[in-house]
Structures are given as C-alpha cells and as structure tokens.
Model the fold of this input.
Amino acid sequence: MTILFLILGASLGSFLGVIIDNKFKVPSLKQRSKCKSCQKTIGLLSLIPILSFLIQRGKCRMCPSQIPRYLFALELANLFLFGLVLSWQYTLAPSLLLFAFVSLNLLMAIFDYKNLSIKNSYLILNFLICLALAISLSIPMLHMVYGAIIGFSLFLLLWIITKTKGVGIGDAYILGAYGIVLGPGLTILNFFLAYWLAAIHLGLILIFKGKAKLPKAFGLIPYLSLGFLLSLKYGKFLTSLILYS
Done:
C-alpha cells in the first residue's frame, strides 16, 4: 500500500506540472499530452513519473528537445511529501486529506511564486480540505474557531497596517484555514515560522548569490504551507524549544 501511495504522489506531481504548463487551468482528461516542440503525442511509456525522465535523460523520445526540469522536480517533491505524510502514520482519512493538502499547497506555492497572488478557487478548496482534516482529527470545535479567527486576524492586521502593500489578503484566508486544524497556539507558531523560513531562504540567497539576486517581492504561501506541516507534526516540540530556550 505504501508503494501505491508513493506512485500516486509522483503521478499527482506530474499532473500538477501539466496544470502549470496549461497556465494553471485543469486540462481535459480526454486529450493526450503532446511534446511542445514536435507536437507529437507522448506515448504511455514516456508518461511514467520520474522513471521516464531518467531513462530518456530528460529528453523527448521523438525529438531532441529537453523536458523542463521543473516537471521532474514536481514529481520528486510530491513523492517526498507523500512519503513524509506516510511516515507520520495517521489513519487513512487524515492521510488522504493530507495528500490532497500537500498537493494543492504545492500548486498554490508555485502559483504564488509566479504571480504574487492566489486564485479564489484555490482558497476555497484549501479551506474545505482543512475543515475536513480538522474533523477527521477530532479537533475540538472551539479550537477550530479560535484558530481560524487568529490566523485570519494576524494577516488582516498586517494588511491594514501596511495599507495592503506588505502582505496579500489571500495570506489571511490561508492562515485562517490552517488555523482550523492547528488551533490558536500552533497558528501563531505557524505565522512566525513562515517569516523565519522566509528569512532563512533570503539569507541563503544573499550569501550564495549576492544582493542583486534578492527578489523585490515574494509570496508567503511556500513558507506558510511548510510552516503548517512543521507546526502540525512538531508544534509542541518547537513551542517548548522556543519558550524554554
């Protein structure tokens, strides 16, 4: 069963790549994928996640054009995330919902990175997944409500203080949804973790690539979603480490 879920993770990562190639629109499942260079239909043997890329050395089988490396990276990333969820040994329902969560948030992170915004449809789907996940984990109702209010209010306050320039209102809806699962305390941790992770990332860019490579603006969703996973699984440990260090 574990192998099947890992294959599913890589396959969904491949499908995320198709969505991104299609300008973030879900393509028709009736149409077969085509090579962008030679326009020939891609054979089934070339659609095996990860393995096809490695066997073909990152090239189309019908022409010498290179397959974008980010498609391979997406397959690996989603495979890793599914493996991470499996290692946490939740029961079936929370695990399936976490699979949906990591795949959606991977897509949202890339959309945010490219556009510095987020689609309303993604926000709604993220909220529904988080709500279902909280119910499957038997999170108390008050924790769900307080977590959602705190998560939304933190970014709403920043949005107002910075006059809409410091953060996007979408961040408030995202952390509000996360708060349904995390409850009030871990939602605050998620908030700070996102900024710490962003600071570490920017620091690494500054050290290894120089000041010129620092982005003028960046989306928070990649850091928020990673902060959510850290808070969900390691929140109590991280909180005690911060409070008693």
